[in-house]
User: Fold this.
Amino acid sequence: MEIFSERHFFVASYTVFVFLLLCSLPLQAQEILDTVRIPTIEVKAAKIRQDVTGSVSQNWTKDQLAQLPANNLAELLAAETGTFIKSYGLGSLATSSVRGGSAGHTLVLWNGLPVQSPMLGQLDLSLLPVQSMESIRFDRGGNTALWGSGAVGGVLDLRNQADFSQRLQVASLTQIGSFGQFQQQLKLRLGNAKLQAITRLSHQEAENDFTYLPAPGVPERRQSNARLFQQYLIQDLYWKINERHHLSVHFWQQESDRHIPPTNVQTRSEAHQDDRATRLILDFQKRGKKGMWQIKTGFFNEYLNYFDDQILLESRSRFRTYLSELTARWSLNSQHSLLIGNTHTYIQAWSAGYRENIPAEYKTALFASWKYKAAQLQTQISLRQEMVDGELIPLVPSLGVDVYLSPSLTIKGKLSRNYRLPTLNDRFWQPGGNENLLPESGWSQELTVEQKAGDQNFQVKASMTVFNRNIQNWILWSIREGQSFWSSNNITEVWSRGLEPRVSMTRKFDDFSLQFKGGYDYIRSTNQVELANPRMAAGEQLIYTPIHQAFGSFSLRWRGWYALYQHSYTGPTQGINDPIEAYQIGNIRLQYSPQFKAIQARFFLNIQNAWDKDYLVIERRPMPGRFFQTGIQIFFNKKTDL
Amino acid sequence: MKLRFTVLFMFFIGFLNAQTIVDFEEFPVDTFLNGSDGNGGFTTNGLFLPNAYNPQYGSWTGWAISSMTDTLSAGYLNQYSTIAGSGVEGSSNFAVGFGGTQIKVNNGEGSKQVNGLYVTNSTYPYLSIREGDGFAKKFGGVTGDEPDYFLLTIKAYAAGELLADSVDFYLADYRFEDNSQDYIIKEWTFVDLSSFGEVDSLSFSLSSTDIGQYGMNTPAYFCVDNIQLGDLVSSNDDLSITEMQVEVFPNPAVDYIQIKYEFNQVVQAAIFDMNGRLLKQKTLQNANERMNLQELAGGTYMLVVSGDGYRRSQLIVKQF
Assistant:
């Protein structure tokens, strides 16, 4: 499988990097001349990575995000996508399971760079604010060849984008809610045709001291030690040096202090967790008539400190990530596009769990993708070769095809190999870390049939996706025979397969519209190797992986009024200790948006868990019953020059 | 009745004559010994308590010897403390067992009678069972009615074979219909192992109703002290022991007994019930001392007075 030696790979990797860099220089001069001659450059290079071929994706714009009863990415995915969100409670840790994968199998990108914790391999989705993003895209299915490790179940791409037509924009959000919830956000956008600066500030706090029924006939219990405090600053600067040269800087500083409530079989808790993240990305683009070069550099410095005063536990951890990514893409003609990229990532991490060591990891990858686009066919072939600390990872290819059988009927298919690298904790934690771990890897296949019908006023879209995925060398922490401590090992294989039917309908009248969206997921994700610890039979469904999930939403819009009802069903799951019952949750949003000249106001009321259901997502972790959020958003826009 | 007392008396004379109490007091323990010396275990009075210590990670399994008595701090960092607040009868040292473990008798080269031992909870599981923690449940569950238990099972090997019988001791038992009867062991409690007879080794395992895919959630610790060894086979030591004249009165007694013995020396007086459980111990400094019986229920007991090379056993009766 190793097509290069380690040395050759290093040489090749750097050669490509330097080659791409050098290639861009003469073109830069050329483009400057071109800029003089041609005032407006139309960039025709296709979006090869964002515009997925062979699989399905969902997109949300900032306007859509602002009108959903979801404050963070976990709430958005749970209500809008059918993704199973493992939520430990209101405001608590939330991770995802996409297509029966683990939390580390969903790759999260911020402006195109992965922001997962390299120590844990996952990201707490409850810490990712959705209303401060310009757009969010969710690709279902494996996409390691283009995005790298972790893109096994899906990819979440959070983006901040420039809008050079904007001159002044002020947006604010003030929200209060049950259980002492209070949230304030301010967004200020200032700019002209060359420069844009966007500042987003957010402050959020909550007591989250909801009451819940531990069991029928048992007195109500009030949740304790659940206080949440979170604030962040996201600052974007965009400089359109000229039509062909763009520079942007993205800065994200976030702090959160969350108290960890007791389980429903725990008298009290004094645990709390501080998360602090500083993320910085510099993005330089050179755009030509048929091509585009892009250099991204990222620096992430993040802390996760966990304290439990009750048991005198203090666990501090920190990591730094340095990333650089150079991509070049060309539209060879109207049909053929090519992308070549090279990434370098260097990570250092600190934790008492590493003892006196400060583990570091260096990764580099070469990837390429070719896309062919014709009237009735789109094909994409991608290839990635990554190397971690001198060890070559298996080459991952991907083939995606979209066939447009008619203007209304499309068939999409994808075959890909995907992997997830062991995390730093998997490799270096003491005791139990295992430096000899292999990446989790395997092949995925998926097929989607998509049918559209309707006209301008009535649209129906239905699709059915069937997928299949096998992952070998699945990593689990467990106590092995003869050991007295937990250790990480490649001990099992997981076979995931399922069906994902989706339907959406939109009906528009003059000043009235209604929309229905719905979906159902049937997912079997089974352990294929009999294990003693964790105790799992061959063929057994993974824990916290529902076989059945369904979701639907119905919305009405009339002039400035908007009403939304979201309903989701999650089938029974198995926890680590006990089975968890199925549950259904309904959320309501009522909204009125009057316009006063350049100012638009939006008054809203969210009723979460409207049917006041007692339910658990994670065993022993109670969820709140019905609760309310209300607030006002104010927008001021000016698009002319100041 | 008379015949029964005679048989019991002879039984006590038989095994108490040469009884050795293993109390771990000879170990130089500041806080705990967890095997970091690399010896692979602890040897005392012919018993071997194995320990597997990993110097790379500082982790251990098997046995530790401890004198830690923090009864308030929850969690893993207090894994060496006993909830009883001391060893048996206020002694300093005791043993802490972690996970499935064993004790070899006679230095692993023969068999011996183990009459019993004292057991209690470590502070870590005690508080976890009572309050719950981030991983383990508070016993009784969300309703308080769930029939939970934390069980120590002791098995024995004799002549290299696992004996069919085992002894179960509930370190916590919440299976009662009446929740007020639910309990977690907090005091040192005698566990009678005499039914095993002579054994090569004892094995200890813990189980709990709080169990999941990754095994037991209840912290797998327990504490042991004052292991009573009985030498049923005559030895040179037995031959050196001579009778000592002891007077005990009143007998039957009400609240106390007066013990008079013939040599003015320090001796140990111990009271056992008719199942051989040690109920009370006292060090006697003078040749004529009282021993309080107020906390004992009415019934028949065995008093054993022993000194350096001397011992005397006598049945005593406390009136109802």
Remarks:
- The CA atoms of residues 263 and 621 of chain A lie 5 Å apart.
- The first strand of chain A starts at residue 57 and ends at 61.
- The two ends of chain A are 60 Å apart (CA to CA).
